[in-house]
Structure formats: structure tokens, C-alpha cells
């Protein structure tokens, strides 16, 4: 079998769809022909993180591997929307972990804490779960009915995972769901949480990757014949030392004229009435540690086609993409400063994820 081609995270479900409903899309990834497809997304599984030491995850390392590129920002919300819709950030409009939804309001997308921001309107691109018959999603029970679920997982049967620590039950649940559906999406989030808390170069992160590897190995042993298992991630991760975590509010030249702060510590949306002055000061202050752009100059980061006016307003008036291992923290999200592993920016480490494939 020929090696898989490199591609984008946006290519995964269209490539699957080309086999399940011939003619609706093209398979740009060279996926195997199968009766059904299971897509396991491991939050925080970056290409370089995984291959730093393949012995930690021998089952995953044994699968056919290709590199995929995420969109920007390289963060869960944007990547899940890109995976589900096959569209880039400029089209699906979920431009970050948090962003301005209306004047004076920055919404956090994981909790969807702006009730006026209707998910089906905010993210209007049809998901592949809506476009295909026989789809299911196996995700934590806490996500049932959430704004993000409505935005990116609509169209699929919702199968809740009641206990994410019960790996044998999770295997049985996933296998049963895959057997009954043509396309099943399975989500695992623990690796990302461990990486944020401890960093990805730690024994805790390696231990959890081992658990994920054992889970994937069990799936490979138990899934019904004729199933293609695809394992991928939504972003990689960079460990940021404490000395490289800068609080915006602590630096007068950064805090001046800033009205709202969105995004996350590796990619910031800055909302201001004076973007030219703010961008100039920020570019001077950060120097080579970051790329600072006005909104109109940053639009091509988020897609090959300019976003609609509605989506463009969600982007910062000034957008900051961090380089190397620096982070722009904010007092409005103090928990960020306690995190070691971060992501969201345009580095290869953050934007490159694996596509690991096996036909059972």
C-alpha cells in the first residue's frame, strides 16, 4: 500500500465521505476503502509531540502515518470546527478559544458563555455529520447540548461517555457505536489537560499517552472487520517556561488603549479603538518574539478566502501570534499563566498533527 499523502485536517471527513457517498467529495488523503470509518481525535496529539519518543505509544507508532496541517488558530475550537465541516477558520467563524461576539463581550467557546450567540448561526457551515447518513459522536457526557456541540457536532447521534477514566467501558461503547454507524467520531481530551497542567515533556504526559495508546490498541483488536480507524489530533503543544509568560496588564505599553482581550496566550485577539497605535507599540515591545498584525493584514492567516464581514469582526483589531516559547497572558484569564503546555499559534510544532490509519 502506498504511503498516505500529506494534507490538511480539513481533508479528513471529505476524504471519508468520498467512500461513503461517492461523488460528494474527493479523497485527497488516499484512505482505505472500508465499510465504516471511526475517527479518533486525541486532543493535544501533535505530530512532533507523538514522534519525540515513539516507544511511548507503540500501537499508534505502528500505524500508517501522514502529517496534517491544522488551520489557525491551532486550538481545539477552531480545529474541531474545521474537522467537522471541512472548512477553514475564515468560513466556519470560530476564530479562537475566545473572541468578541458583540460590543463589549468576549465569549469563551468551550463554555459558550454568551447566550445571545446562537451556535447554528454563529457556525453556519453544514457539518459532514449533517451531510452523511449514519453518523455518531462518542464524547464526554458533559458536552450534551453545549453550544460547541451544537456548532460543530450537529447532525450526528450523540453517544455520551459517562466516565472517561473507565477505559474498558469506553472501548466497549465505542465498538458498539462503530458497529451501528457508517461514520463514528470519538473524542479523547485527557492528553491536552495533562499537557496544559504539567507540560508535554513530563512523565505525566507520557503516562497518559500510554493510556491513549492502549485504548487505540484495544479498538484495533475489537472493532468489526471492515472498519477503517483514523487517529488524528487538533493541535500540537509548546511548553512555555514561567519566565516567558508575560501579563499584558503588567506592561504599560501593552495595556494602553486595549479595550478587550480575546484568543489565548499563544494567539491573541486585541480589540481597541486605536489599532494602528496599539499594533505599533506591540510590535516594538515584542520584537522577534511575536508577529503583530492589524486585522486586515492578518486575515490570510485564517483562510485562503477573506472572511465575511460578520466573521471579520470577531478577529482582533490587532492580532498577535507568538513565536518560539513565549506567551501573552491576561489577568482576565489568570488560569492561563499557570499552564505549562500551550498552543494556538502558527509554529510548525503547534499546527502539525498526525493522521494514523489502519484497516481492521
Molecular structure report:
- Helices cover 32% and strands 24% of the residues.
- It is built from 16 helices and 18 strands.
- The strands form five sheets. Strands 1-3-18-9-2-8-6-7 form an eight-stranded mixed beta sheet, sandwiched between helices. A four-stranded antiparallel beta sheet has the order 12-13-15-14.
- The longest helix is centred in the middle third of the chain and has 20 residues, at 203-222.
- The two termini are 15 Å apart.
Characteristic key phrases:
24% strand; globular; alpha/beta; 16 helices; Alkaline Phosphatase, subunit A; 32% helix; 2 domains; 360 residues; Gyrase A, domain 2; four-stranded antiparallel sheet; eight-stranded mixed sheet
Shape: globular
Strand arrangement, largest sheet?
A: 1-3-18-9-2-8-6-7
- Our count of helices gives 16
Can you tell me the residue ranges where pLDDT is under 50 for at least 5 consecutive residues? none
Mean pLDDT: 97
Structural class: alpha/beta
Helix content: 25-40%
Named CATH architecture of the largest domain: 3-Layer(aba) Sandwich
| CATH topology description of the largest domain | Alkaline Phosphatase, subunit A
The percentage of residues in β strands lies in: 15-25%
List the topology elements.
Layout: E1 7-8, H1 12-20, E2 36-42, H2 47-51, H3 58-61, E3 64-69, H4 76-85, H5 89-92, E4 98-102, E5 105-108, H6 119-122, H7 128-131, E6 135-140, H8 147-152, E7 157-161, H9 167-180, E8 183-188, H10 190-198, H11 203-222, E9 227-233, E10 238-239, E11 245-247, H12 252-255, E12 260-264, E13 267-271, H13 275-286, E14 290-294, H14 295-298, H15 309-312, E15 318-322, E16 327-329, E17 341-342, H16 348-351, E18 352-359
Parallel strand pairs: 1-3, 2-8, 2-9, 6-7, 6-8, 11-16
Antiparallel strand pairs: 3-18, 4-5, 9-18, 10-17, 12-13, 13-15, 14-15
Helix pairs in contact: 9-11, 10-11
